[in-house]
Amino acid sequence: MSLLDERGSGAISWQRNLAVLWGGVFFACASYTMVVPFLPVFLLQELHVDSNDVNFWSGLVYAITFLGAAIMAPYWGARADKVGQRRMAIRAGFGLAMTYWLAGVSQTPEQLLAVRALTGFISGFVPASMSLVSSTLPESRMGWGMGLMQTAVASGTILGPMMGGYLSAWFGMRMSFFVASLCLAFATLMVVFYVRDIPHASELAKVKINLWQDLKDSLQNKGLIYVMSMFFLVQVCTMLIQPLVTLYVSHLMGRMDESVIKAAGIIFSLAGIAGIIAAPFWGNQGQKRGYTRILSFVLVCAGTINLFQIFIRDIWQFAGIQFIYGLFLSGAVPNINAKLVEVTHPSMRGKAFGLVTSAQQFGGVVGPLLGGALGEFMLTRHILVLTGIILLSTGFYTYQTKVKNTSEA
Question: Are 49 and 348 within 8 A, CB to CB?
Answer without folding.
Answer: no
